[in-house]
Design goal:
Helix content: 40-55%
Low-confidence stretches: none
CATH topology of one domain: Helix Hairpins
Structural class: mainly alpha
Radius of gyration: 35 Å
Strand content: under 5%
Shape: rod-shaped
CATH superfamily of one domain: DnaJ domain
Largest sheet: none
């Protein structure tokens, strides 16, 4: 007996979640499922939840199928599905501050930030008007 394709194993493991907003979870399929898998899952679910007895569940299943039944609608739906955030990764380089004191850096810093090293004092002396 030939083995089933690997996506068929993944579909058999998933159960439909009729409370989810994601159409793939409602139908119990993977987002990588083929159009044939989507159709097969849809028909299996409507046999399980017929509209005569399970009308609310049938409406949810039908709405999910309508969102992903064609390739064009599937692309439109996939764009707006919430994506899980990427896993947090710690920074690869530990950031640290250089807190060592270098006496040779003091004089250039004071010249840059203050008036130390100024040689023109003309603005300090002006005529006094009496």
């Amino acid at each position: 007996m030939p083995d089933k394709p690997e996506h068929a194993h993944a579909m058999a493991d998933r159960q439909p979640d009729l409370t989810a907003g994601d159409p793939y979870r409602v139908l119990g399929i993977l987002p990588t499922a083929t159009q044939a898998d989507i159709k097969q899952a849809y028909f299996a679910l409507i046999r399980q939840y017929p509209p005569e007895t399970e009308s609310e569940n049938f409406k949810l299943i039908r709405a999910a199928y309508e969102k992903i039944k064609s390739a064009q609608r599937r692309v439109e739906t996939d764009i707006f599905l919430p994506q899980p955030p990427p896993a947090w990764q710690p920074p690869s380089i530990a950031l640290s501050l250089d807190t060592t004191f270098h006496p040779n850096d003091v004089l250039p810093a004071l010249r840059r930030w203050g008036e130390l090293g100024r040689t023109n004092f003309d603005a300090d002396f002006r005529e006094i008007d009496l």
